[in-house]
Inverse folding.
């Protein structure tokens, strides 16, 4: 075939091909530059991020998880658990680019659904059982498991048979901790009593110190607490009382400081954030990590803890690695009502959001 004939036969196809290439180039020249959506984490704290307590532990745990996953973090401190303050903090974070927001205190839960529906493209994680919006879920750590173990230590150490507990306010979160601690206490001292005084605040140094004094006057010789800062422990040390810490241990105490129930929030946040980033997060069910995952633990025991008590605690901890035994078997409340029968276990749903009662041995200070 002559060259002229070949060109005459194939020229139309070549021309069409050239036109297609030219058209693609023109279309691409009018496309907007591609942008990658980046995750920015927002954190709402009820107190100062450097408070050496609850807020510091949350911020540092979340910040460490963000570094591990190479994402940015923003935080707003001192956000009251009110509707206006919560909204303002969330809007500030979203305006700065946050598209994943962690609400790190229980009280924010009463507003989270409405906020989540207002911002449907933002993911919300809240320490509360209130989140029902499709872009919201709950997360927490099973500190009650460590509380149960600490109750064993405290119950064995008490000479008076009265243990003191300073707590912010009654809700499912604080109540299950109180009950778990009491159940641990009763395993080693069936006649012991747990005397609880509520302060009405997560952070009130004067009232927490006053509570320790009142509990001591009522006979308590071992003190623990559930609040943002260790003021109760400081007061117990001052008064020569035995004590059990909470959240974290940020200073050296005497041997009278028997142990502490502590969180590892980095473990929790790495799991929750990792699931979100990989698309595995399930907004239909929350996260509740415990001893087995390393989310909670006991601080190393003081030398003042008796060998027998330490062995009982260790044995119970080993059992708990196999099954959550805290709220199982026969449990009566402090009014004599049977709450759990042999062979049963109280459900996670009740533990998380329905615990409005106290076990046998618990007395509320009036």
């Amino acid at each position: 075939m002559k060259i002229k004939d070949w060109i005459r036969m194939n020229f139309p196809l070549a021309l069409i091909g050239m036109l297609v290439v030219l058209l693609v180039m023109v279309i691409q020249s009018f496309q907007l530059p591609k942008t990658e959506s980046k995750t920015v984490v927002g954190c709402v704290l009820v107190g100062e991020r450097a408070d050496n307590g609850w807020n510091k532990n949350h911020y540092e745990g979340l910040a460490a998880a963000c570094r591990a996953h190479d994402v940015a973090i923003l935080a707003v401190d001192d956000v009251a658990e009110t509707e206006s303050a919560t909204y303002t903090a969330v809007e500030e974070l979203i305006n700065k680019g946050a598209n994943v927001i962690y609400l790190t205190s229980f009280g924010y839960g009463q507003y989270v659904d409405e906020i989540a529906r207002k911002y449907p493209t933002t993911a919300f994680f809240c320490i509360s059982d209130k989140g029902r919006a499709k872009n919201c879920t709950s997360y927490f750590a099973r500190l009650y498991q460590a509380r149960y173990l600490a109750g064993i230590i405290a119950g064995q150490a008490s000479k008076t048979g009265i243990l003191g507990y300073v707590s912010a306010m009654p809700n499912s979160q604080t109540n299950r901790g109180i009950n778990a601690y009491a159940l641990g206490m009763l395993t080693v001292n069936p006649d012991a009593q747990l005397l609880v005084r509520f302060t009405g605040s997560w952070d009130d140094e004067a009232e927490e110190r006053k509570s320790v004094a009142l509990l001591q006057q009522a006979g308590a010789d071992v003190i623990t607490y559930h609040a943002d800062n260790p003021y109760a422990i400081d007061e117990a040390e001052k008064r020569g009382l035995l004590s059990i810490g909470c959240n974290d241990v940020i200073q050296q105490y005497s041997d009278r400081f028997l142990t502490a129930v502590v969180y590892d929030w980095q473990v929790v946040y790495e799991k929750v954030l990792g699931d979100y980033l990989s698309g595995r997060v399930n907004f239909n069910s929350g996260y509740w990590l415990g001893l087995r995952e390393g989310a909670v633990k006991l601080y190393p025991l003081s030398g003042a803890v008796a060998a027998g008590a330490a062995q009982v605690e260790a044995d119970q901890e080993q059992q708990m690695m196999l099954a959550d035994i805290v709220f199982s078997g026969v449990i009566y409340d402090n009014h004599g009502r049977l709450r759990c029968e042999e062979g049963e276990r109280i459900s996670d749903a009740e533990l998380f959001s329905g615990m409005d009662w106290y076990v046998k041995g618990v007395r509320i200070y009036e």
The longest helix spans residues 3-29. Residues 124 and 136 are 5 Å apart (CA to CA).
